Predict the 3D structure of the following.
Amino acid sequence: MNYSPIRFLLVALFAAYLSHSIQAEVFPKREFRGVWIPTVGNTRFQNMTPQAIQKEWSAMLDTFQRAGINAVIFQVRPEADAFYPSKLEPWSRFLTGEQGKAPNPMWDPLAFMIQACHERNMQLHAWLNPYRVTTNDHEILSRMNKKHHKLFIKYGKQLFFDPGNPESWKLVTKVVADIVSRYDVDGIHFDDYFYPYPIKGEEFNDNASFRKWGKKMGFKKDEKAMWRRNNVDELIKEVSETIHKIKPWVVFGVSPFGIYRNLSDTPDGSGSNTHGLSNYDQLYANVLLWEKYHWLDYVAPQLYWPIGHPAADYATLINWWSKNSFGTNLYIGQSIMTFQAKDLKNPSINQFAEKMRLTRETPNIQGNIWWSGYQLAQNPFGAVDTLADHYQKYPALMPLYPSLNAQAPNPVADLRITIDSCRLQLRWTAASGKNEFDKSAYFCIYRFGLNEPIDLQDATHIVAIQHNATYTIQNAKQPAKYVITALNRLYNESTPSVPVLIGE
């Protein structure tokens, strides 16, 4: 082939650019890679056997594992009910078809999901809707829920717990405490429903509570909005303190609506350049206050819009939340379906690359949560393949939560090579400890070439993050050296083991 000097230069420049792009991409060592699994509105389960449901969920978790997901946000309280046996609230109608009706044969969906996720080295965060009682006006409440009728307010066609009544906060907090005490959950998660989304022409009638409780709290007649925000603040504070008192390693996160406040509603110019409903003004969720006081361990704003949306631009919002995290871990709530929107600069491709670039290059952002799990499991437009083969191809440790605990666990001991059924394995001993943070909850296995320096910050050398203290070497004939670190419940990392050499 005859190259002209200019063509040769262009080819050389393109090759250099491509090489630089590949080398410049950094895979994060720590990244939250969550997925939401909702149960509200799902009526299929009531016609399925426990075995069929478990088979479906297991297959979905296998797909998530292939995609590099490391946390599952599972909805266990869609409407003042339970996807687990509870003495506080009734079984969910979305599981059995009738609120309060126990599954037959009896089983525990939450316990199943915890075990299934942990077996796949994923976290399980129990997701609760704090105030919703019904989703329509023809639901039949169980006797267990009818006894709380004095706490309910009807709005539109739904019932809600009155956020202005302290008894509502106490009930939600009791439910959270029950879950954290009885189950090995890794996190508690609230969604975006606090005060209900506004209905045009209808006021949420909490006047009686404002007269009774607002005055006692020192709020004036024209400070109802402030009082409402204070009510939600009190719930968040109480839940946070309760969780960490019972188990200091269980994290608490909220996934608020994507707009905190619009620029036009903030005289000081602190709002985002958006034009939509907001947390602060319509849902009475003062998310920034919760961040400032570290009542939340993570916040995951739902940025479900595409880049370039005229009212709520993804790029605008991701930058706004980045600048307003106040040291709280920030994960982006992603609608996987918006990733197939056309790229603004190149309509022949979708927005996947640009959205992921913004997520990983914007400061203070430490991961994503994908909506929804059912959609993602179907591998729409090859999304699972894209995550598995590229963006999440290497395992990632959870982000750190230094405000909760920064103590590293004790390192592993006695790392050795064994042979089991003709398979070469690494085995080690987890060091004991006096408290939960001394102990090993997981292990990180690193693999390096014999002549490569040991760099634990390079995520491309992580081959597994797991609970078990045994690792089967996949390619025993290839010379390599392995290093093991211990991770505690908050993924603080120990000092590395002495390297073990294979096939030298």
About this structure: The domain at 29-391 is CATH 3.20.20.80 (TIM Barrel). The longest strand covers residues 413-420. The chain has a mean pLDDT of 93. The radius of gyration is 25 Å.
